[in-house]
Amino acid sequence: MAQSVLSQVSLTGPTGSESSIRGLPVFKAQNISFRDKSWAPLLGLDSKTRNMRSRNQNILCMSVQQVSVRKIAVSPLELEDAKEPPLNIYKPKGPYTATIASVERLVGPKAPGEVCHVVIDHGGNLPYWEGQSYGVIPPGENPKKPGSPHNVRLYSIASTRYGDSFDGRTASLCVRRAVFYDPETGKEDPSKSGICSNYLCDAKPGDKVQITGPSGKIMLLPEDDPNATHIMIATGTGVAPFRGYLRRMFMESVPTFKFNGLAWLFLGVANTDSLLYDDEFSSYLKDYPDNFRYDRALSREHRNKKGGKMYVQDKIEEYSNEIFQLLDNGAHIYFCGLKGMMPGIQETLKRVAEERGENWEEKLSQLKKNKQWHVEVY
Asked: For 38-68, b where at least 16 C-beta lie within 10 A, e where not — what string?
């Protein structure tokens, strides 16, 4: 998810006869098909993995699509010790130089636009918590301020504090390539394309990237009650922080956090090819049916009850009474994605509240006072 300060991983197939390393399966690089999409091997690996591969020609990784029922051990567990989230360790005037580990296209050929999963190796020097953001400074000069670097772009982090490699050395970003099409000619105008998103989507393993942060506290995952309910509403790359939440809840074995509540994800995208991390989320649905719910709103494929396009607010309306009951019982609700998502959602919630004989403004004020309401839009 990107903001203008303003926010993916080819598959490898498991080799059953291979031994495991550090409790993780060993995979051999190969092309496999996912929802009729052809995926190539990972573009890049961290130095530890590259060394391992050179010894036995196997790739050790946990890709977006490989989700095991057995939870994954993580380290270093010292990342659990801090009582407060890390904030602004590196600032725009003194950013950290990290390394691109891999870049993968996440969406299929029929998706309207490109979204990439970008894994960044920070060497354990830029710790963060789930729900925080990194700032990225693309290379080059700011055209509006000659001699100065580009402005920082903020991206919600799409991994847990342990990263996709489970060792606390990487962070993942979910980046939509921003392109501009001339309304008169219909042709793409590269001069008006998003500088940072194109830089990240075009990056190659080993490229250097300037990072600031981490920043943000509004989207931090409350962990004081492991039985709490978390309702997550995302459009497009706004799903980034929620991927981090869900990996922490259902994929990683964290001794200090044993989630036993309910996580409910609503994801709105254009079509099936636009779904992000869908296999990962679907696997949680299969493995943890009592703790996870997953509802998709595909605007170009689904229809709402009035026969119009199905947007995320329409899906929310379908379950509005249940959502309101959960909120009354203390559930947290999160919104992340394009700023344009909020008016429709707010109108829907207000209409439902009135139908229930409630005053929405008063209810919203109480939710904010109770710290149940979390919004990050751009």
From this structure: ebebbbbbbeebeebeeeeebbbbbbbbbbe
CA distances, 59 to each of 10, 159, 213 (Å): 12, 20, 31
Active site residues: 155-156, 336, 376, 378
DSSP string, 300-369: TT-B-TTSSB--HHHHHHHTHHHHHHHHHTT-EEEEEE-TTHHHHHHHHHHHHHHHTT--HHHHHHHHHH
What pLDDT does 362 receive? 96
Look up tokens 């270093």; give the residue: 76
The amino acid present at 12, given as its one-letter code, is T
Peptide bond into 214 cis (omega under 30): yes
For the stretch 149-180, pLDDT in tens is: 999 999 999 999 999 999 999 999 999 998 87
CA atoms within 13 A on the CB side of 324: 20
Q: CA-to-CA distance for 243 and 254, rounded, in angstroms?
A: 16
Residue pair 62/166 in contact (Cβ under 8 Å)? The answer is yes
For residue 82, give both structure tokens.
Answer: 């801090």
CB 326 within 8 A of CB 232: no
105: closest CA among 243, 8, 200, 219? 8
Give yes or no for a contact between 250 and 284, defined as CB atoms under 8 angstroms apart: yes
Per-residue model confidence as pLDDT tens digits over 320-340: 999 999 999 999 999 999 898
C-beta separation of 372 from 332 below 8 A = yes
Cα atoms in the 13 Å half-sphere on the side-chain side of 188: 7
- The position carrying tokens 């981490």 is 214
Q: What is the pTM of this model?
A: 0.81
Residue by residue, DSSP assigns 243-285 as: HHHHIIIIIEEBTTB---SEEEEEEEESSGGG-SSHHHHHHHH
- Give the start-end residues of each E strand in the chain: 2-4, 12-14, 27-29, 32-34, 37-39, 72-73, 96-105, 115-121, 133-137, 153-156, 170-176, 208-215, 229-235, 252-253, 262-269, 292-298, 332-337, 373-377
Q: Report how far residue 343's alpha carbon sits from residue 72's, in angstroms, rounded to the nearest whole number.
A: 39
